[in-house]
């Protein structure tokens, strides 16, 4: 049996970004696992969830934006959006350009995301409830700074997807 790596860096370690990233990798993976476990019980596949979170974040999108976000062919993105539309999670909205298809969440789509978010938050709250209050405060401060940095850095599409 191997000894677990320490999760807390010593004061000098924080200056070594590569080492800090390695230390953060394990707890970030655990957080992603807690989060994803509840998305796995979603009535729609993960790729469709990514589209729904994108549309929620940007209010309205066109199919080209969906293809860009997924790094997919336009035809594949169009079919995916069609499936979401047929299940009443997305709806078409008029666009200034008749050739463009704009999409937004339906009430049912928003309810799905709200429900998933609530389940995810309850799972996180269960873990946070048993943490030491000082550790929770430290976690909140660090995560808030991390999220702010990602938002302000002119991030790539995959960075924005992390914050959905």
Quick description:
The protein is built from 7 helices and 3 strands; from the N terminus they run H-H-E-H-H-E-E-H-H-H. With 164 residues, it is mostly helical.
Task: Outline the fold blueprint.
Blueprint: H1 17-39, H2 46-58, E1 61-62, H3 63-70, H4 74-86, E2 90-93, E3 102-105, H5 107-129, H6 133-152, H7 157-162
Antiparallel strand pairs: 1-3, 2-3
- The best one-word shape is elongated
Biggest sheet strand order reads 1-3-2
**What does the main sheet amount to?**
3 strands, antiparallel
Report the CATH topology name of the domain at 42-130.
Arc Repressor Mutant, subunit A
State the name of the first-level CATH class of the domain at 42-130. Mainly Alpha
The unreliable regions are: 1-6, 156-164
Termini gap: 37 Å
Derived from helix and strand composition plus strand pairing, the structural class reads mainly alpha
Mean pLDDT over the residues: 79
- Looking at the overall shape, the CATH architecture of the domain at 42-130 is Orthogonal Bundle
Helix content: 55-70%
Number of strands: 3
Please give the radius of gyration in angstroms. Answer: 19 Å
**CATH-wise, what's the superfamily of the domain at 42-130?**
Winged helix-like DNA-binding domain superfamily/Winged helix DNA-binding domain
**Order of helix and strand elements from N to C terminus:** HHEHHEEHHH
GO molecular function: DNA binding; DNA-binding transcription factor activity
Pfam families: MarR_2
Protein name: DNA-binding MarR family transcriptional regulator
InterPro entries: HTH_MarR-typ, MarR/SlyA-like, WH-like_DNA-bd_sf, WH_DNA-bd_sf
């Amino acid at each position: 049996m191997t000894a677990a790596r320490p999760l807390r860096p010593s004061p000098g370690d924080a200056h070594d970004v590569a080492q800090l990233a390695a230390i953060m990798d394990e707890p970030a993976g655990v957080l992603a696992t807690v989060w994803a476990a509840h998305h796995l019980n979603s009535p729609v596949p993960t790729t469709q969830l990514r589209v729904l979170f994108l549309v929620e974040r940007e209010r309205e999108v066109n199919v080209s934006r969906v293809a860009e976000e997924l790094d997919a062919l336009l035809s594949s993105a169009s079919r995916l959006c069609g499936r979401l539309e047929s299940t009443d999670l997305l709806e078409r909205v008029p666009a200034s350009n008749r050739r463009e298809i704009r999409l937004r969440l339906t009430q049912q789509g928003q309810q799905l995301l709200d429900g998933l978010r609530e389940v995810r938050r309850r799972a996180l709250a269960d873990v946070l409830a048993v943490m030491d209050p000082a550790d929770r405060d430290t976690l909140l401060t660090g995560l808030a700074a991390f999220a702010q940095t990602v938002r302000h850095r002119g991030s790539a599409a995959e960075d924005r997807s992390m914050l959905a």
